Amino acid sequence: MMQNKNKKRILNILILGLLFINACDDTESTQDKIYAIEGNVLFHFSEVNLDSTQKPVILLSLESVKIYGDGGMHMIGQLERVNNNFSLILYGIRKEMGLGDFSPAWWNSSLALGNGQYSLSISYQDNHSTFNFFVSDTSIIIQDTATSFMIPKYLTYWRYPQNSFMCTFSSDTSHFWLFEDFLDTLQKKVQLHEHHFPEYGVICYLPCCGYPGYDPPPRFFKYQTETDYYRCGEILNEYALEVLFQYPDVSIWLRDWKGREYFHY
Questions:
Q1: pLDDT score, position 214
Q2: Beta strands 164-170 and 139-142: pairing type?
Q3: How far apart are the C-alpha atoms of 57 and 50, rounded to whole Å?
């Protein structure tokens, strides 16, 4: 009798083990499964800081118009280059582990691009789109082309000016005069040239967190040497100790073209 019970226990353990293995296999197959891309896809060029000691790199990014409730969807594709011609073949989307919900499916790749004219062809099943784009020291411009599949997120991207930085100011009260006062202090102690981006297109510098519609617009400057930017950081620290300690709701943030930051908040 005891032998029969032991046999049943061993059999139950084996069955549970097989069920567990099958469950794991189902999970893995779900992760590896490639789903169809639904709807249109947006693409754009930008610059990102991968290393604060190096210049920014150009990034080609794609994102689906559709927002997936089961987040972490990543497009699968293969990018090839022949001279100044790029070809991207998309195969579909796959779920990535450990990412949040409610986000588009995405894909990106860094590109080594000098100044010049390029073409980008993107294919998915029966959908084919080709675009020309132009790279210069100041911008990346996509030539608008009608397509039923791929859509440029924007046509003009303004690149990081070399030796430039952004200065932003945030406050929940009417202390905007402190922004001008700090900038006056900065320009008296460091030789800077204010930079103005065109009013159209998308600029390289991401907006700072703050109070949209209330904080003043960020200001942009160019410095001459690395030492000049380090000095800007020192001046911000000095100004914080001498002035900003009286205004706990005020934040000032400096960020340069290589991603190096100084801030007071």
A1: 56
A2: unpaired
A3: 7
Token couple for 9: 């226990």
Q: How many CB atoms lie within 10 A of CB 44?
A: 19
- Taking the complete model, does pTM exceed 0.85, yes or no? no
- Other C-beta atoms lying within 10 Å of the C-beta of residue 244: 20
pLDDT at 29: 46
For the chain, domains (ranges, CATH) are 41-158 (no CATH), 164-264 (3.30.70)
Count of residues making up the chain: 265
List per-block mean pLDDT (blocks of 10 residues) for the chain, which spans 265 residues: 44 40 40 85 95 93 89 90 97 77 90 96 93 97 84 96 96 87 97 96 77 74 97 97 93 95 92
Count Cβ atoms below 10 Å from residue 91 Cβ, excluding itself: 14
Q: With left for phi above 0 and alpha for psi between -120 and 50, is residue 24 left, alpha or beta?
A: alpha
3-state SS record for the chain: CHHHHHHHHHHHHHHHHHHHHHHHHHHHHHHHCCECCCCCEEEEEEEECCCCCCCCEEEEEEEEEEEECCCCEEEEEEEEEECCEEEEEEEEEEECCCCCCCEEEEEEEEECCCCEEEEEEEEECCEEEEEEEEECCCEEEECCCCCCCEEECCCEEECCCCCEEEEEEECCCCCCHHHHHHHHHHHHHCCCEEECCCCCCEECCCCCCCCCCCCCCCEEEECCCHHHHHHHHHHHHHHHHHCHHHCCCCEEEEEECCCCEEEEC
Check residue 10 and give its pLDDT.
45
167 has which bridge partners?
219, 254
